[in-house]
Amino acid sequence: MIKKLIFKKKQDGRLSSIEISLSKKELEYLEIDLVSPEIKFEYQQKKIIIKKGNLETEIQEYKNGTLIKLLKNSKILINKAKAYKTFKIRIPFSVIVDMNLTEKDNEIKMILQNKKIIIKKIENKKSVEGDDNKMGEIITIKVNKGGIGKTFITLQIGSYLALEKNKKILILTSDSQNNIIDYSLKEEIFFEKGLKEFVKGGEGEIIRLRKNLDFIPTESSTFGSHFLMNLPNFLLEMKNKYDYILIDSIPTMKIDSVFVKCSDKIIIPCFSDNVTIKGVINVVNEAGSDKVLAIIMNKYENKKIQKNLLSELKEVVNDTDILFPNPIKSLSEIEELLHKGKTIWESNSIKLRETKEIFRVVGEAIINKNYKKEQIKDEFDISF
After folding, report:
1. What pTM was computed for the model?
2. pLDDT tens-digit map of 202-241
3. In CATH, which of 3.40.50.620, 3.20.20.80, 3.60.20.30, 3.40.50.300 is domain 137-375?
4. Sign of CA dihedral 346, 266, 280, 178
5. Do the beta carbons of residue 153 and residue 269 sit within 8 Å?
């Protein structure tokens, strides 16, 4: 799997530490005990190896000023924010220098093998721009409950990438209501064959929502084992045809776990209420913070309780690379657009400027892997 190093800085801009985030599953693979999270940190031949336990002897070898070998005892760094814990490993500066990793060139490959984590630098990376052979990416818009505005958010992200950035986009859904159609088209659409037909090798129907924006509807919301087994192959085929595949998935279904497993990133929509915030934390814990691209708070009202919960969620994501843009305000203009089958990009309403900027930020983060959450201008006052 591919991960990014986290370069932490002091207030004066100087580098303070470099860390790698671990998911709960990766800790479980190492059989790490959180009461005593000691690990063996080994580095040689441009490769980091992490194992559970303690070394009897620590070693640091240099040759002509170059680091040759480093064996040291370390531990998993655990930071708890409310119900959410983050797990990280701190990487010595000498190792970062020898691996020639920088804040811009910060991607590493992590391999789980024989109860060890092996970390290597990704060599010979192809440039994203101008790479005609680059496969598309899958992004699942993932929630643990309905009614949050997942379909609305999926459509606005897809429309931005298609209409504003000229990317070829496919939207999929596991919901047989196919609300994407109602939200994006005025006329009623009838179809007979969709996602299920495609997955079993037949010819389903692709609905053109906008220029560069396609949608494959779902015939029903019951999915057998044969369908679930063949779904990853279909997704791989679509990655060769589209720049981005956005999945508007139903929570608590087996197909949802398949979509998440096949996804490069997930985006989590939420409300500012206790139940939803707990659901967000559960999703982040399950998927790991590295797989979560963004958390988007929807239908926000500037009330005391919502401010508190917004602040709490900011605390959760503060120690991660998860993008957390300003919340989407609850606006009647949005409801009117959905009723008319229009996207926010097809409206000139001044009241939608902030909403457009929020989706622009998310869209840029999808396209630009080096887009930093620090680039977001925080326009919401959460004090009271």
Report:
1. 0.74
2. 888 999 999 999 999 999 888 888 899 999 999 999 999 9
3. 3.40.50.300
4. positive
5. yes
